[in-house]
Amino acid sequence: MNLNTVCLTGNLTRDPELRTTGSGTSVCSLRIAVNERAKIDGEWRDKPMYFDITIWGNQGEACAKYLEKGSPVAVQGRLQWREWQNDNGDKRQAVDVVAERCQFLNRGDGSSSGGSSQSRPEVPADTRDLPPSGGTPPPTGGADDDIPFARPVIRDRSARRRDLFGGDRWVA
After folding, report:
1. Cβ–Cβ < 8 Å for 31, 10
2. How far, rounded to the nearest angstrom, does the alpha carbon of residue 27 sit from its chain's CA centroid?
3. In CATH, what number is assigned to the domain containing residue 49?
4. Which residue(s) pair with 102 in the sheet?
5. CA–CA gap between residue 72 and residue 7 (Å, rounded)
6. Blockwise average pLDDT, block size 10, the chain, 172 residues
7. pTM above 0.90, yes or no
8. d(CA 79, CA 51)
9. How far is Cα 116 from Cα 114, in angstroms, rounded to an integer?
């Protein structure tokens, strides 16, 4: 049995490049740096390794829209070997990663990776269910209100269906 699976986590070394094939399929090219810890001259250091990533279709479009240089990503895919001849007629080869999944990760400073460096506008919190400052909380509707994970009582069996994982869900 042969297995060709790659899982990498790293940071983009440049902005994503999105292009479209002649048939209209989107393809995005990324390059990520993955650090490996190595002992160099008796001292532990990060040694970067660079990987070219190809992402097809809607995932590629999302990467081009929301990622930028420095964005952390996790990529799962497969290795693809290719060879070609350069302008001088020399035979060249490369191994690339064809991504099947690309997960956008949060940056170390707590911000998420995204295509814009502008901060998102603050959205006021919904405070209608909070007690007024210094007052008592508003009255609740019943004994089950303090149990947030309690299952609803289903009176009409026709309104209940099983989901894929065996749980109940409401059908409108």
Report:
1. no
2. 17
3. 2.40.50.140
4. 75
5. 14
6. 92 95 94 90 90 94 94 94 92 93 80 46 49 55 54 51 50 46
7. no
8. 10
9. 6
Q: Residue 126 has which token pair?
A: 């919904």
Domain span at 39: 6-104
Residue 170 burial class via C-beta count within 10 angstroms: exposed 0-12, middle 13-18, buried 19 and up: exposed
Please count the CA atoms within 13 angstroms of the CA of 42 that sit on its side-chain side. Answer: 0
Nearest residue to 29 via CA among 136, 102, 87: 102
Instruction: Name the DSSP letter for residue 137.
Output: P
Number of domains in the chain: 1
| Residue 18 CB burial class (10 angstroms; 0-12, 13-18, ≥19) | middle
C-alpha atoms less than 13 angstroms from C-alpha of 36 in its C-beta half-sphere: 9
**Cα–Cα dist 55/138, whole Å:** 52
Is residue 40 within 8 Å of residue 18, measured between CB atoms? no
